[in-house]
């Protein structure tokens, strides 16, 4: 799939910023990490030249590929590969009803520029996508899987953890792409739960609390939350028993859920 970079005469489009996976071993190990078996229904976002598509099909998967690049989509369609359906579309605007009602695995190499947005959209439909194995910029993959107290822990870590257990399963060097990007990549596996791992009073309020807490990273909670909730912030913290001198990167998923309950109670 396409990731960061410029288009050359070799078939890359500057506007899309494409670097194509060429490492067959990385493709095979990605499919292995997804535990694809005969008959698996798989959504692949950004198949590019099909380096990941082919081992998916070889494993017996029925693959629905969504490709934004018209020429790449046409090339895959012309190959007429058994078990492959191709849609030319931007996944962020793609009608998910076209995938059918049954759950699907997601196996994909995501673009650096939109990888986080695509992941957030997938997690918004946990009943549809119970397992997600995607390649991202390494820094982003580390944030997705980060634990409280680590340097990479942030809002993306918490919002992901609400719905999924995430594990970085494979580091991927620039040499695995043509042309090589300027950053490393990594494959992350998300085992998605059908319901939130911790009950939250309101999903939108949870997102608001998490993003407010991390808006000024490294600052104390009583200061970051005051920006979003004004003079109510000290009372919210006091009622949850969370020390306002702590920083957002030290809070657990459960503590963010408790903060959310108090914020919802203000309405």
| Biggest sheet record | 7 strands, mixed
CATH topology of the largest domain: Rossmann fold
Note the beta-strand portion.
Answer: 15-25%
- CATH class value of the largest domain: Alpha Beta
Fourth CATH level, the homologous superfamily of the largest domain: Vaccinia Virus protein VP39
**Oligomeric grouping of the chains:** single chain
Number of strands: 9
Task: Label the structural class.
Answer: alpha/beta
End-to-end Cα distance: 45 Å
List the total number of helices. Answer: 10
Under the CATH scheme, the architecture of the largest domain is: 3-Layer(aba) Sandwich
Helix and strand topology:
Elements: E1 20-21, H1 24-33, E2 41-45, H2 53-58, E3 62-67, H3 70-79, E4 84-88, E5 105-109, H4 115-123, E6 131-137, H5 138-145, H6 155-161, E7 164-172, E8 177-178, E9 185-192, H7 203-214, H8 221-229, H9 233-240, H10 253-265
Helix pairs in contact: 7-8, 7-10, 9-10
């Amino acid at each position: 799939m396409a990731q960061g970079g410029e288009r050359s005469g070799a078939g890359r489009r500057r506007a899309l910023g494409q670097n194509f996976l060429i490492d067959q071993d990385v493709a095979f190990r990605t499919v292995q990490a997804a535990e694809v078996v005969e008959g698996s229904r798989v959504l692949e976002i950004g198949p590019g030249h099909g380096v990941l598509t082919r081992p998916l099909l070889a494993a017996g998967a029925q693959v629905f590929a969504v490709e934004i690049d018209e020429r790449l989509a046409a090339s895959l369609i012309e190959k007429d590969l058994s078990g492959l359906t191709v849609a030319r579309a931007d996944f962020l605007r793609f009608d998910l009803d076209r995938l059918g009602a049954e759950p699907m695995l997601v196996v994909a190499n995501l673009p650096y520029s939109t990888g986080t947005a695509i992941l957030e959209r997938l997690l918004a439909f946990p009943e549809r996508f119970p397992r997600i194995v995607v390649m991202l910029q390494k820094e982003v993959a580390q944030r997705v899987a980060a634990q409280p107290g680590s340097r990479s822990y942030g809002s993306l870590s918490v919002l992901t953890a609400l719905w999924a257990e995430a594990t970085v399963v494979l580091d991927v060097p620039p040499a695995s792409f043509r042309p090589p990007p300027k950053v490393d990549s990594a494959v992350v596996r998300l085992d998605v739960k059908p319901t939130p791992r911790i009950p939250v009073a309101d999903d939108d309020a949870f997102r608001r609390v998490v993003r407010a807490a991390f808006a000024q990273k490294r600052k104390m909670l009583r200061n970051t939350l005051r920006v979003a909730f004004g003079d109510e912030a000290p009372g919210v913290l006091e009622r949850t028993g969370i020390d306002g001198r702590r920083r957002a990167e030290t809070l657990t998923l459960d503590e963010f859920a408790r903060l959310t309950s108090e914020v919802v109670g203000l309405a």
